[in-house]
C-alpha cells in the first residue's frame, strides 16, 4: 500500500509539473506529451484504485477489520479504511469503471485542447494606437 500511495503522489507531482510547463508555452510539444502521459497514468491509477475498492467491498466487516489490524498493513490502515468507506458510497464497480475511463479520457483531452487554444490567443490591439 505504501508503494501505491507513493506512486500516486509522484504521478500527481509529475502531472502538475508537466501542466505548468505546458501552461508556460502551449507550443512545447514535449510538455504537452508529458501531460498526456500523466493523464494516462492517472487513468491507470484510478482503475487500480477502483479495483482495490471492489475487493475491499467484497470483504465482510469483521474480515476487513482483521485484515487491517495485521502488522504489515497497519501503516496503511487509515488509507485503506477511508478507501473502503468512499467505495461504499459509489455505484456498482462495473458501472463506475466505465464512467471513470470515459470521464477521464474526455475531460483530460478537452482540458488539453482548451489550454492549447486559449494559450494561442493573441490580443490584436497591443502595441497599436
Question: Could you explain how this protein is built, in words?
Answer:
The chain has one domain (2-119). Helices cover 78% and strands 0% of the residues. The chain is elongated, with a radius of gyration of 20 Å. It has helices at 2-24, 29-58, 61-68, 77-88, 93-120. It is mainly α and 129 residues long. The longest helix has 30 residues, at 29-58.
Q: How many domain regions?
A: 1
Order of helices and strands: HHHHH
Mean pLDDT: 78
Helix content: over 70%
How many strands in all? 0
Approximate shape: elongated
**Low-confidence parts, pLDDT < 50 over ≥5 residues?**
none
Cα-based radius of gyration, to the nearest Å: 20 Å
Please count the helical segments: 5
Distance between the termini: 62 Å
Largest β-sheet summary: none
Proportion of strand residues: under 5%
Structural class: mainly alpha
Secondary structure elements and their pairing?
Layout: H1 2-24, H2 29-58, H3 61-68, H4 77-88, H5 93-120
What tags apply to this protein structure?
elongated, 129 residues, mainly alpha
Summarize this entry quickly:
The chain is an all-alpha fold. Helix content is 78%, strand content 0%. The longest helix is centred in the middle third of the chain and has 30 residues, at 29-58.
